[in-house]
From TrEMBL:
SUPFAM superfamilies: AhpD-like
Top-level taxon of the source organism: Bacteria
NCBIfam families, per database record: ahpD_dom (TIGR00778)
Pfam families noted in UniProt: CMD
Residues of the Carboxymuconolactone decarboxylase-like domain: 17-96
Protein name in UniProt: Carboxymuconolactone decarboxylase family protein
């Protein structure tokens, strides 16, 4: 599969990506734990079917110390016992924040309350921003059919 657009060859994309990547760095540098960020990024990308981001965030998570067992269970996190309460709340918020069309009311109050039990202030803000950021990145890649070659190297975008 060939990409429909080459973002690096387009001036408008270059300008927009500069700001998008800056937002991504700000989220990455937030107090939200790195492993939580990668688990959430991976789950959002799984839901959206973004192979490029699945490749990237699986490798980034492993580089951050995540285990293959937990990475393999992210797609079935509700039935898995390997995630903390905080991680489960983050994954639940990520799912409802990604499936807004499926969950007619958006993120439910109960889901928000569970996330707020574990994350406050900057961490909660970073979690919300991360879910939104990943949905944007996924959609850019999916619309333009960016191929996943499997060649992503951790740290490439830091």
């Amino acid at each position: 599969m060939d990409a429909r657009l080459d973002y690096s060859a387009d001036a408008t994309a270059g300008k927009a990506f500069k700001y998008l990547m800056s937002a991504g760095r700000a989220i990455k540098e937030s107090p939200l734990p790195a492993t939580t960020q990668e688990l959430v990024s991976l789950r959002v990308s799984q839901i959206n079917g973004c192979a490029v981001c699945i490749d990237m965030h699986t490798k980034e998570a492993a580089a951050a110390g995540e285990t293959s067992v937990r990475l393999n269970l992210v797609a079935a996190w509700r039935e898995a016992t390997v995630f903390t309460g905080a991680e489960r709340a983050a994954l639940e918020l990520a799912e409802e924040g990604t499936r807004v069309a499926d969950a007619a009311g958006g993120v439910g109050d109960d889901v928000w309350a569970r996330a707020a039990e574990h994350y406050a202030g900057e961490q909660l803000t970073a979690l919300v921003m991360l879910v939104s950021f990943m949905n944007t990145a996924n959609r850019l890649n999916i619309i333009t059919r960016q191929p996943a070659t499997g060649g992503y190297q951790p740290g490439r975008f830091h």
